[in-house]
Structure formats: structure tokens, C-alpha cells
Design brief:
The protein is mostly beta strands and 113 residues long. The protein contains one helix and eleven strands. The chain has one helix at 28-33, and strands at residues 2-6, 9-12, 17-24, 36-41, 48-53, 59-61, 69-74, 79-84, 93-99, 102-103, 107-112.
Length: 113
């Protein structure tokens, strides 16, 4: 199984980005039943949960993400997405997608104030 994250970049504070995570090598029924998640790790800090979404579409958000970020999934395409709105400088981090014990390689989000 491989997870490929993309969509990171540099934006100014208040801007938006949409991250995507494409999966490969995972059978459909496993993807549909698995919880997918996005984590992030800022320089000098521990990795933290941003948001997760279970197979039914029920989402859970970390405190920093509530009201600003939206996680979604496309079970047919076997992808995860994370919409980042109202970005702030403290959102600068490498964002990783996760499913079961598999991790994507990370995509860098840089927010300038």
C-alpha cells in the first residue's frame, strides 16, 4: 500500500489550500472500512492529528482545525482530501496522510503573515 500526498505550497495568511492523498495497492473493501487521517508536524514540534474520517464519512477534528479545515474522502477513487481555509502562520507544517499503519510522504504547507 502506498499513500501519495500532494497539494502543499506557500500561501499568505488567510489563504486556502487543498491537500489530496491518493492511495494505491489497497483493495476497495479495506479502503472503504478504514479510517483515514491527516496529521501535521511543525518544526520542533511533535506530530499532531489534524482530522480523521471513518468509512461512513464521520469526521473528527483536532482543536486547531475546527471551523477552518474540512476532511473528506472519495471511496470510489480511494482518495482523502483536506481543505485548508483561513490559514495562519502557525499552520506551517508538513502534512501527512495516514490510513491504518500506512503513511504518505508528507506535503509542506508554508503560510506567511
Amino acid at each position: 500500500v502506498q499513500l501519495q500526498a500532494s497539494g502543499g505550497g506557500s500561501v499568505q495568511a488567510g489563504g486556502s489550500l487543498r491537500l489530496s492523498c491518493a492511495s494505491s495497492g489497497i483493495i476497495a473493501s479495506t479502503f472503504w472500512s478504514s479510517t483515514g487521517a491527516w496529521y501535521r508536524q511543525a518544526p520542533g514540534k511533535q506530530r499532531e492529528l489534524v482530522a480523521s474520517i471513518d468509512g461512513s464519512g464521520l469526521a473528527n477534528y483536532g482543536d486547531a482545525a475546527k471551523g477552518r479545515f474540512t476532511i473528506s474522502r472519495d471511496n470510489r477513487r480511494r482518495t482523502l482530501s483536506l481543505q485548508l481555509d483561513s490559514l495562519q502562520s502557525e499552520d506551517t507544517a508538513i502534512y501527512y496522510c495516514n490510513m491504518n499503519h500506512y503513511w504518505g510522504q508528507g506535503t509542506l504547507v508554508t503560510v506567511s503573515s
